[in-house]
Specification:
The protein has eight helices and no strands. By secondary structure, the chain is an all-alpha fold. The chain is elongated.
Length: 179
Amino acid sequence: EKALVLDPRTGSAFMARIEFLVRHGRREEAAPVFDRAAPALRREASQFYLDWGAKRQEAGDLTAAATKFDRALAADPANVPARIRRGLALAGLGRTTEAEADLLEALKLEPGNTAALKGLGALSLNMGDLPRARYYLTEARDRSPGDPDVPGLFDRLRKMEGQKPEPAGGKGAGAPPSP
């Protein structure tokens, strides 16, 4: 019998092997392959739902997007981009407590993640918590000085504070204010 050569790094490769074994009546051999496949399958499923959710989010359907991101996170709770995108979708739906929890969890999983910092900064602005907004936006700017979104968020912050625009660069933010 000719051996089937597969790339073991992808869930699709594992599934092809499992299907081959099952089709040929070799279920006992398929079970351990399936066990080894589970992590790769979870990553692939998570990426599938992340991509699908991103398309729904870009189309403005935040409810459907949040549902797809839920599925992505069910498959892989450590998927930081899915957690950030779900947080942003939930924020857009007005579910600020859940949004904040997702964005903070993303920072716990990946400290210094600029997208999470910007999301928390924007969410803090929307909730009127200007000291927290300044903290998160300063952290985002310091970690990613060329990010094109941060200056606009700072302009919005300064407008809400009744200040004039600050020159680029600025100072560090220190510790985050308490919620």
